[in-house]
Write a structure and sequence with these properties.
OB fold (Dihydrolipoamide Acetyltransferase, E2P); 7-stranded mixed β-sheet; 3 helices; 179 residues; alpha+beta; elongated
Length: 179
């Protein structure tokens, strides 16, 4: 029995060394979502396209920016530390789920989040919190029905170049006949 206890005492620290590093963290309850939607530094709606790092990092397709700086169409929200570390407040994301995100800007991680924020899966009742003015993410596709100047200028430019080349070819051929 002593050998078994001794083996457990020796093995336990070794097993902990090979598992994920655990950093303990604690937080206060996040503010009510109605308050967070009007006071948070960064708020946007997006759908998780893919997760990594034990589902704590989410590749997000941003659909609407409510507050804070403009966001690109695709962002990574990191709900936990990198590598083999973990904390008690890591957030786990689900692929295919749309969330109302309340991340914060972390100098090392970029957009970071954890279970202490008000980030929540999207439900229809959250629509009532939508501010009067929202923005599309940077690089979003233009809405259908809008005037697309690039869609006109590119074909027009090609037509001018081809027409000019044909005109010059015609002049060169006419000059040869005159000789």
């Amino acid at each position: 029995m002593r050998r078994l206890v001794l083996a457990a005492v020796v093995a336990w620290p070794l097993l902990l060394g090979f598992g994920p590093a655990l950093a303990l963290a604690d937080c206060m309850m996040p503010p009510p979502i109605e308050e967070a939607a009007t006071t948070a530094d960064i708020v946007f709606v997006g759908t998780v396209a893919q997760t990594t790092n034990r589902n704590s990092w989410a590749n997000v397709e941003v659909t609407e920016v409510w507050r804070g700086p403009d966001q690109p169409r695709a962002v990574v929200v990191k709900g936990g530390p990198p590598g083999n570390a973990a904390t008690s407040v890591d957030r786990a994301f689900e692929t295919g789920v749309t969330y109302l995100f309340f991340p914060y800007a972390d100098p090392e991680l970029g957009l970071a989040d954890n279970s202490c924020s008000s980030t929540t899966p999207w439900t229809e009742d959250l629509d009532a919190l939508r501010p009067a003015v929202t923005r599309e993410p940077i690089g979003a596709e233009p809405e259908a029905g809008g005037f697309d100047l690039g869609g006109i200028l590119v074909p027009l430019g090609v037509a001018v170049i081809v027409g000019g080349a044909l005109f010059l070819a015609g002049l060169a051929a006419r000059g040869r006949r005159a000789d």
